[in-house]
Amino acid sequence: MEMLQKLELSQEERARATARYEALGRHVAAKLDMADADAYVFVQGSMRTQTTVSPRGNQNFDLDIVVKLTGPKVHGITNPEPFFQAFGSALKGIHGAGEPTQKRRCWRLNYPGEPFYFDVTPALPDSRSMGLSVATDLRVRDPDTRWSPSNPEEFADWFCTIADKRFSFHRELREMLAKADTQVTPIPDTPVGIDDILRRGIQLMKLHRDNYYWNLSEERKDAKPISVILVTLAGHAYNNMVTHEQTAYSSPIEVLLELVDRMPRGIFTDGRSYCVSNPALTMENFADRWNSDRGLRAREFNTWHKQLVADLEALFSEEYSKKSEARIRSVFGQYGVDAWKASMPTSPLQGLLAAVPGQPRTNPTTVRPQGSKNTLA
Amino acid sequence: MVKPFAVAAKAVEAWITDAGRPFATRVESVPGSSKPMAWKFKVSHPRLLHDTAKLSLPRDFPATPAQIYLHKDHCLVLPHVEETGKVCLGVEATPDDYANPVQAIGRVLSAFEHFLTQCNDEDWIASELRRECWSYWMRFCDKVASRRNARPTPKHLYVAIRGLTTIEEGSLAIYLVGTGRQKVKAVVACHGDTDPHSLARRHGISDGQLARGTALFVPLPIGQDWRPGVWPQDFEDLDMLVGQLSDNAVSVISWLQQFADKPRQLFLVAFVQGQFVYAYQLCPPLVQRLTPPAIEPLPAIRLDAEWSLTRGYGSDEFASRQDKRVLVLGCGSLGSPVIELLARAGVGSIIIVDPDLFLPENCSRHVLGLSSAYQGKATRLAERLTREIPGVTVQGVSALASSWVSDRATPGMFDLVVDCTGESSVRALLSQYRHSAFQGTPIAHAWLEPFCAAAHVVLVGAADAWPMSDPADALVNAAEWPESTKHEIPACGAGFHPYGVADTWQAAGFAAERLLSALGRASGDSAIWSWVRSKAYFDALNVGARPRAIVPLAGSEQDSRMLSRGYDEVLNPNG
């Protein structure tokens, strides 16, 4: 569990990302000739729900940014294309961000040299005026439907409310730790810092998913379960357990295994079509595409989910001390191993080691003297 | 089955019984006695005190030639006559003696005849006695000591001399043992300011109750006639000789009178000729001034560095070595024998730096042993060498090379720095401290290659510094080695290299020889010396070593070569 905390952006990196997106907001406002207050920048997605997972290899964190534009300048915009393109132009020339590239609903800024990139989605308020049938705070460009409703903040609020609910053994654990300060009692065996079962569980699932699909065909990769579905299903399952079975579990591991086991229950299906509703916007079906791919995504979800259940059970049925590097690699890949290693007690050294100047990150340009070893006495 | 010795003895017996009967008579022995067969025979010679001699057939004749005995009174009168009367004729046994034992007796009798002929010449007698006077002195001492009225003398007399050129006073440390009537177990005598008790303590010969005494050291010129018959026989002779040698500047009587208030003290007069000491113990008379002191000649053995380490041979080179100061880093399987060799070669001052403790498994290839378990290698070896070897100051420091070099070493402290750690980090350290600690001092790095397949001594002259790239593997070593040749043990970073003491001590001898030559050289030029086994040795290891050009292609596993390479030539192979 501790290893999952290593999967997130570090505090320092998070602070840099925050500084970056604040600068981005001011830049866009200036470019579009708007008041700063009219360009409201916020994060959505995994950073908002605190379930980020660094993708495999040297890829960077994907941070979803929404720029909500208000005020007279954007009032009454009806055609999404010129608005989307104008926003794209406004993203040019942001210090350190690199050239924006166009995506389906957003613009990507790569921030070369940073461990993250931004997917910046421009959004306009007041969706009702655009003739959409539901009321949401925001509308965003969609190449198929012109405008698409969006409510990332409500979704995130829903999730966070659930994730902050705690099982009773959490409280016991905390009380035990508090007591440990004042009297000599045995330190609990359970690793500490595993407060956030839902968020950590989702990170674990994402990591497992990314590793599972890493070597598979492009076609299958495209059909892998998307994060928002995992978040939704896990959120429902956790909410159910924490609300109705408060005392049924004795450890976070049990909660996690049960949670994963229950996730498929959140998929509503009549055998032909599937539905995973956005809990904050019930008319939106996150599993919409499952219904137009002849069952590919539904099958992928089932296959992957079975593997996840099997792997988690194998992993947690072993003693903690027996969790070998090979075992973790097979389940979560090298990044998981790195994170696991980084969660080891040696981690305090990492910062010091990183502070050594001139550590070769790439091939050194000159020969470094290594000394001689075949000189004995 | 008749044994060869018996066959030979029978033949000799038969011959004398038959042909020799008119001249020799059998010396009868108790029946069944194991005494050798012997015959007496008449001999007539003006120098002889008695007219009979004895031919003795050793029990292992003819492996040992027959012996001629004169009366023992001839000892110290005629040369080559031992205290038993045995005449040392210098006849060697020959293989033919088994087949012709009588001829072997003939050779002995011829040699005896030749000896008697030479004894007609007074000068020959004198020069022969002079030539071997040390062995006659021992006999003289024994003979005098066996007198009924002989005074008690010390069991051992040790003398330390260094650079004695004029008559000098010295002091004695006397060690008494026993209760009641004590015996003198040992006496240590030194001239000048050297304290004999410190010396005795240092070398572990200070057993017993300490008493003090005084000595007079008298150098004898090489040309001075010194032989039996010339040696002082009594105190007057001795006093006269000292007076004569000092142009009457020194009188032993006057010298003794200074100590009249200490009549029971022991006094010694030590004549020094060449490398040898001929000492007399002076015994004050029971009633002062009534009679002169009695004198007892004493066999003395020297324990000073010059004698102990060179027997007086090559003393100029040795004297210069005694002034050298060497720092040795590392006291392990290479360092410890190298240090021992440097000390025994007479290097005057050695500082050993090594942080390690001696452990039982080090016995296999260290000069120390189990009595040093759990003690510092450097300090224990220093103690041992200090105790065992004279004339060298050895100091052991249990410290890391790095801290000692950094904290203590200053330019001019040493004539040579020897790195026997084999560690890259120490070579780098010495390069870094080249100027601040060792300006002007040559630095030698010695190491072994895995399996002791080669050994190298890199002498970095005062003008050079070993490159920080540490090209020992790349440019000096005789082979490229596989990643790990170490034998792992279940301990962190530990392990050992499988080579034996015979391997490392060969390398130590190789290295020490070159280090001594570096110490003796006036020029401080850099050089690289290597001892490299033949290719057959590398191949037989079967570990994937890749020998380089300096490895000899010819020869068996036991063969090797030693070579010298130019420092610049090795370090800059491309010119």
TrEMBL record, chain A:
<feature type="compositionally biased region" description="Polar residues">
    <location>
        <begin position="360"/>
        <end position="377"/>
    </location>
</feature>
<feature type="region of interest" description="Disordered">
    <location>
        <begin position="356"/>
        <end position="377"/>
    </location>
</feature>
<dbReference type="GO" id="GO:0016779">
    <property type="term" value="F:nucleotidyltransferase activity"/>
</dbReference>
<dbReference type="Pfam" id="PF18144">
    <property type="entry name" value="SMODS"/>
</dbReference>
<protein>
    <recommendedName>
        <fullName>Nucleotidyltransferase</fullName>
    </recommendedName>
</protein>
<dbReference type="GO" id="GO:0051607">
    <property type="term" value="P:defense response to virus"/>
</dbReference>
<dbReference type="InterPro" id="IPR006116">
    <property type="entry name" value="NT_2-5OAS_ClassI-CCAase"/>
</dbReference>
<keyword id="KW-0051">Antiviral defense</keyword>
UniProtKB/TrEMBL annotation, chain B:
<dbReference type="GO" id="GO:0061503">
    <property type="term" value="F:tRNA threonylcarbamoyladenosine dehydratase"/>
</dbReference>
<dbReference type="InterPro" id="IPR016135">
    <property type="entry name" value="UBQ-conjugating_enzyme/RWD"/>
</dbReference>
<dbReference type="Pfam" id="PF00899">
    <property type="entry name" value="ThiF"/>
</dbReference>
<dbReference type="GO" id="GO:0061504">
    <property type="term" value="P:cyclic threonylcarbamoyladenosine biosynthetic process"/>
</dbReference>
<protein>
    <submittedName>
        <fullName>ThiF family protein</fullName>
    </submittedName>
</protein>
<feature type="domain" description="THIF-type NAD/FAD binding fold">
    <location>
        <begin position="322"/>
        <end position="446"/>
    </location>
</feature>
<dbReference type="InterPro" id="IPR045886">
    <property type="entry name" value="ThiF/MoeB/HesA"/>
</dbReference>
<dbReference type="InterPro" id="IPR035985">
    <property type="entry name" value="Ubiquitin-activating_enz"/>
</dbReference>
<dbReference type="InterPro" id="IPR000594">
    <property type="entry name" value="ThiF_NAD_FAD-bd"/>
</dbReference>
<dbReference type="GO" id="GO:0008641">
    <property type="term" value="F:ubiquitin-like modifier activating enzyme activity"/>
</dbReference>
